[in-house]
Design a protein that fits this description.
With 352 residues, the protein is an all-alpha fold. Helices cover 78% and strands 0% of the residues. The protein is globular and about 60 Å long. About 8% of the residues have low confidence. It is a multi-pass membrane protein.
């Protein structure tokens, strides 16, 4: 695995260096290292096809490394902040995420996108962009082309959201508090929330960050639900096989048809989801020291970037270009749905 791992690590280091350059020049990473890694990986794959000796390390980085990263994300989740934020705001966040996923999936399917691509786009827009896409992908058995396409187009719209969302303050007449809620509900990444709210004011930044963190917490329940739903998904178009969590997959190695119809718990719920929930529980109980949270989060972020570099190395740009038009429309429509739902919830619940 060493050659493939080293290649992914090299791309990761370059991506982090580019993000550091952005922060030095602009103060904010408008295009994060996670996105840069997949773009760099795709560029490398376009210019040069890695040989057979790289395949094992790239495959390990794209799957197992990503699963470890998702597990570590649970250590940064605390239920205390959720309870303190208030029942109305909590209900609004849960409602916004649920409605956006359902509406986005319906839109994507209406546009003719495969069900896995629809789920990736819906979860990316509804929860936390690239991180949600990366977490959902192994659960539903999405192939690298779908993951790369969803992340690429979501990344572009993420930057546009940061630049354009402050225009909503005069257009919709929101208070600074309400704008913070809007930013937290719609902007993809925490650094992007900061970039979108700092120009408006400190209250918008504080509220937006809190709402965003609560919204990220929805990743756990959503991924858990999808792991249970994965058995109903059709065969993957890339492999012609069932998803890892599917009944067919759980029957692998078994000669009994009944075994496929009754997959065990650990086949339905991937180990890294259980790990995520376990770390979140430990964090909420105060068993993970505060001093550990930042290093664990940094490690999770680094491993996610490594896995995105691996995904980029598996992308054929020509295939990505073929699906670009429909995916662009789907991601844009899904984002507009999220904005509409967020505005309606803010007005309806009287937040701020």
């Amino acid at each position: 695995m060493v050659p493939g791992l080293l290649l992914c690590l090299g791309i990761t280091v370059v991506a982090q260096g580019l993000q550091a350059g952005e922060e030095h020049l602009t103060g904010h990473p408008y295009v994060e290292a996670l996105v840069l890694a997949i773009l760099l990986g795709t560029a490398v794959r376009t210019a040069w096809v890695p040989g057979a000796r790289f395949k094992a390390g790239i495959a390990f980085s794209a799957k197992q490394v990503l699963e470890v990263a998702v597990t570590l994300l649970g250590a940064a989740v605390s239920l205390g902040a959720i309870v303190a934020s208030g029942s109305a705001l909590l209900a609004g966040i849960v409602g916004a995420v649920a409605l956006t996923i359902l509406a986005s999936c319906a839109l994507c399917r209406a546009l003719g996108l495969p069900v896995r691509m629809a789920l990736l786009i819906a979860c990316g827009n509804a929860i936390c962009g690239n991180s949600a896409i990366a977490a959902v992908a192994p659960v539903i058995g999405a192939d690298s082309r779908d993951v790369a396409a969803a992340i690429a187009f979501t990344a572009v719209l993420g930057v546009l959201m940061v630049l354009g969302l402050p225009l909503f303050v005069p257009l919709v007449g929101f208070s600074e508090h309400q704008y913070g809620v809007l930013a937290g509900l719609t902007v993809y990444a925490v650094p992007q929330v900061l970039a979108a709210t700092v120009p408006v004011g400190p209250l918008a930044t504080q509220v937006g960050t809190l709402v965003k963190l609560v919204r990220v917490l929805m990743l756990g329940p959503v991924v858990l639900a999808l792991s249970l739903y994965a058995s109903r998904l059709p065969a993957s178009r890339a492999t012609g096989k069932a998803t890892p969590g599917s009944a067919q997959g759980s029957a692998k190695g078994s000669t009994k048809g009944s075994a496929a119809s009754r997959p065990g718990f650990f086949k339905l719920v991937p180990w890294f989801i259980l790990g995520f929930l376990a770390l979140a529980s430990l964090r909420s109980l105060g068993l993970i020291p505060d001093a550990w949270i930042a290093p664990i989060s940094r490690l999770a972020g680094f491993l996610t970037i490594v896995s995105m570099a691996a995904l980029g190395l598996g992308v054929d740009v020509r295939v990505l270009a073929q699906v670009g038009g429909r995916v662009t429309v789907a991601v844009t429509a899904s984002l507009l749905v999220l904005l509409a739902i967020a505005i309606l919830l803010i007005r309806g619940l009287g937040l701020g």
